[in-house]
Design brief:
446 residues, 62% helix, potassium transport, mainly alpha, single chain, two-stranded antiparallel ribbon
């Protein structure tokens, strides 16, 4: 007699994302999705689907040159599903059908959002859906103002919608191949409307839906916000401003050479915002200084907020690591910030997340170097960090990679979107509790 298999919420999310990626890969590889009826290899279609669903932006083919309107629409739908989470999309249909959200479905939504409380999760989802629609519509309108005069009314509106959703979901896909393949928004490096709009969309999407809901509950009163929201707002602002200042200093004679002071400031902020974790670039990373690329990798590593459309180890994890270093240096027992003490297991969870993240990136970098000996260590490490952080920035090596290298990056994108710890939990069906507790013995650390 067969035993019923019950999946944990994290396993349902993992399987759901995998099925969406696979179906998207099949559709994108068909002639119906490609220009002039040309087909695309299944592995390249699967890579594009993975990158879109995991809101990364790495591409082995130029989106505009390869895909027709239908293919671009499929990519956009995958981006929206990846940004909201497929459980968020399922909730849309539940709301439309006026169906009751069960406790199990609420648990799935809680896991999808990364929320620590199941209470109020449906309200958060409702706000998320309405907020997403409003913000993306505003972004689409502003971006369309620039493209309608260039490509006509219908196509200009489509460009506005596509890039607004791609930016808000931190995906980094673009249709700039119409003007110059692989250019991202480098052709608009002097355009405040495009750059500021995309920066705003990226930043808002990267804060996380939990922060949105908290701000709405407390009417934007900072001192009444939860500790999570205070950390996200404070350190997100600090990372953006601090990163922009460093980029302005180090890139003056490199990628920003020839720009006016105003353009340098704007592109400095863009270079600081985009790696966390959007994938748009206003300058070519091959033209950046080594210091600029290293700073970009650091920002990709940190990423955005939990429960957001972005990736990386997450800002709160990074802050927990910094607090841990400070507390150990001061010989404190607790991790405290904003007159609040973090839970006892926060440090362990943060270190586990960072360790698994670094381990996967190092393994993939080694495989890329082994399979592509002509590539530099920097470019392979940059590519691996970009995939794991679901960023989508590249030093131009993505399109030349082989099948095994693409599979390696796909796995990193998948882990980066779900979280490496979540993927491990999805593989292990049950929590294993040791039957024996062994004697404690100290070891020397540091």
């Amino acid at each position: 007699m067969r035993r019923n298999v019950k999946l944990m919420p994290v396993q349902i999310l993992a399987v759901g994302f995998a099925l969406i990626i696979f179906c998207g890969g099949i559709i994108l590889s068909l002639p119906i999705s490609c220009r002039n009826g040309a087909d695309l290899s299944f592995i390249d279609g699967l890579f594009t689907s993975t990158s879109a669903t995991c809101v990364t932006g790495l591409a082995v083919v130029d989106t505009y040159s390869q895909f027709n309107f239908f293919g671009q629409l499929v990519i956009l739908i995958l981006i929206q599903i990846g940004g909201l989470g497929f459980m968020g999309l399922a909730t849309v249909f539940a709301f439309a059908a006026r169906s009751k959200i069960t406790i199990f479905q609420r648990t799935l939504l809680q896991e999808s959002l990364g929320s620590s409380h199941i209470g109020g999760v449906v309200r958060t989802i409702r706000r998320m859906l309405v907020g997403t629609l409003v913000i993306e519509a505003m972004g689409a309108f502003l971006i369309s103002l620039r493209f309608v005069p260039k490509v006509g009314l219908a196509e200009g509106i489509w460009y506005g919608i596509f890039h607004s959703i791609s930016a808000f979901c931190n995906a980094g896909f673009d249709l700039m191949g119409r003007f110059e393949p692989g250019s991202s928004i480098t052709l608009f490096a002097d355009d405040p409307l495009i750059e500021i709009t995309i920066m705003a969309l990226i930043a808002v999407g990267g804060l996380g839906f939990i922060v949105w809901s908290d701000m709405a509950d407390h009417k934007f009163s900072f001192h009444r916000l939860s500790l999570h929201s205070k950390i996200m707002l404070t350190f997100t602002g600090g990372l953006i401003v601090g990163g922009a200042l460093i980029f302005y200093i180090v890139e003056g004679n490199y990628s920003f050479k020839g720009m006016s002071a105003g353009e340098r400031i704007m592109n400095s902020f863009f270079a600081s915002v985009s790696p966390r974790t959007a994938g748009f670039n206003s300058v070519q990373y091959a033209d950046m200084s080594t210091a600029g690329r290293f700073l970009t990798m650091m920002l990709m590593f940190i990423g955005a907020g939990p429960g957001s459309t972005g990736g990386g180890i997450k800002v709160t994890t990074f802050v927990t690591l910094m607090l841990s270093i400070y507390s150990n240096a001061k010989n404190y027992n607790d991790l405290s910030i904003f007159r609040r003490r973090l839970p006892a297991d926060a440090q362990r969870k943060a270190l586990s997340t960072i360790a698994s993240y670094i381990f996967l990136v190092i393994c993939c970098t080694f495989l890329l170097l082994m399979l592509n000996p002509e590539l530099t260590s920097e470019s392979c490490f940059f590519e691996s960090l970009s995939a794991m952080g679901t960023v989508g920035l590249t030093m131009g090596i993505t399109s030349g990679l082989g099948t095994v290298s693409e599979l390696c990056l796909m796995f990193l994108m998948y882990c980066g979107r779900l979280g490496s710890i979540a993927v491990a939990m999805a593989i292990v069906r049950k929590k294993v509790i040791p039957k024996i507790s062994y004697p404690e013995e100290k070891i020397t650390l540091g």
